């Protein structure tokens, strides 16, 4: 990120914050939530708002906002990248940079389940709500649903997700749900990636809200993906997850899963923005080539 562009963003936030809404109103929107082939590549950047700043071995990789924005601009500028998923602060920085023209934009909704906290499963909606997503001219909202059978707070998050699905659908906006069966071990929350657990999570997520017409699922690549994805007819996007030691293995897993009929693309963040070799453009181009 060039220093003068960062200075412009800060100056705007200090002196003319109304320009954020003006930039949103003037933004050229994507023609459709899906392209002609029904495929999507979305770059995710909503991790910092949940206090999750690590990428690979670097615990604070995402802590430098200027560096993150530069990586996002590189990714969004690559052919075949359809859009971005983020919280208000990140998306508004990108708006002010003019990086969202013609892109699909998904607002992150529940970031209250801060990483590593005792209240992590009680994932409050502290980000976007459906009216704000509509007001900003964005295309949908994403929510994280971790279902812990031993944590009563699960039902609160589940109810809030159902209400968000309904609210987005009323506005004909995409509701992107990322579901997991989760367990707490030694004070930390872990997602169960066994096929049976993912099947159960997808089945629960598919039934949220008053309609599933606008619901998409965000799903990790796990074993027996064909069986897992058969649990729902809803369209799904593969999540990128952590930065892998072996990126080629990650790409191979994505490629196989993308052959399934209701897998429509990728939502990847750290694995594309912070590849082991540092080449964001190459990582993004490889991911796009898989589609």
Summarize the structure.
By secondary structure, the protein is of the alpha/beta class. 37% of the residues lie in helices and 19% in strands. A hairpin with a 2-residue loop joins strand 5 and strand 6.
Structure report:
The structure is a single chain. The protein has helices spanning 3-15, 19-26, 65-76, 88-96, 130-135, 154-170, 195-206, 225-229, 247-257, 270-273, 280-289, and strands at residues 40-45, 83-86, 104-108, 140-147, 174-185, 188-192, 215-219, 236-239, 263-268. The chain is of the alpha/beta class. It has a single domain, classed as TIM Barrel (Alpha-Beta Barrel), CATH 3.20.20.70. An 8-stranded parallel beta barrel has the order 1-2-3-4-5-7-8-9, surrounded by 4 helices. The two termini are 29 Å apart. The model has no long low-confidence stretch (mean pLDDT 94).
Characterize the main sheet: 8 strands, parallel, barrel
Largest beta sheet: strand ordering? 1-2-3-4-5-7-8-9
What overall form do the CA principal axes indicate? globular
Instruction: Give the CATH superfamily.
Output: Aldolase class I
Average pLDDT confidence is: 94
The CATH level-2 architecture is identified as Alpha-Beta Barrel
End-to-end distance: 29 Å
Indicate the structural class.
alpha/beta
CATH fold name: TIM Barrel
State the total count of DSSP E strands: 9
Q: Bin the helical content.
A: 25-40%
Unreliable stretches, pLDDT < 50, 5 or more residues?
none
Element pattern in H and E: HHEHEHEHEHEEHEHEHEHH
């Amino acid at each position: 990120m060039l220093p003068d562009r960062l200075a412009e963003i800060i100056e705007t936030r200090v002196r003319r914050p109304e320009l954020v809404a003006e930039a949103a109103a003037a933004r050229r929107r994507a023609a459709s939530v899906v392209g002609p082939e029904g495929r999507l590549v979305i770059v995710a950047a909503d991790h910092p708002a949940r206090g999750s700043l690590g990428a690979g071995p670097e615990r604070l990789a995402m802590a430098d906002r200027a560096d993150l924005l530069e990586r996002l601009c590189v990714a969004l500028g690559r052919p075949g990248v359809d859009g971005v998923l983020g919280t208000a602060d990140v998306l508004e920085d990108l708006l002010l940079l003019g990086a969202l023209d013609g892109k699909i934009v998904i607002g992150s909704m529940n970031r209250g389940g801060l990483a590593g906290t005792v209240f992590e499963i009680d994932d409050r909606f502290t980000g976007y709500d459906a009216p704000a997503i509509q007001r900003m001219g964005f295309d949908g909202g994403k929510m994280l649903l971790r279902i812990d059978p031993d944590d009563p707070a699960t039902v609160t998050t589940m109810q809030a997700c159902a209400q968000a699905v309904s609210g987005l659908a009323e506005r004909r906006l995409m509701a992107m749900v990322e579901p997991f069966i989760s367990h707490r071990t030694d004070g930390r929350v872990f997602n169960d990636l066994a096929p049976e657990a993912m099947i159960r999570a997808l089945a629960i997520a598919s039934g949220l809200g008053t309609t599933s017409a606008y619901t998409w699922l965000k799903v990790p690549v796990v074993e027996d993906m064909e069986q897992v994805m058969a649990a729902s007819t809803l369209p799904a996007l593969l999540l990128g997850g952590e930065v892998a030691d072996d990126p080629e293995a990650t790409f191979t897993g994505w490629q196989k899963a993308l052959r399934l009929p209701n897998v429509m693309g990728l939502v990847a963040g750290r694995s594309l923005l912070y590849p082991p070799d540092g080449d964001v453009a190459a990582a993004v181009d490889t991911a796009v080539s898989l589609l």
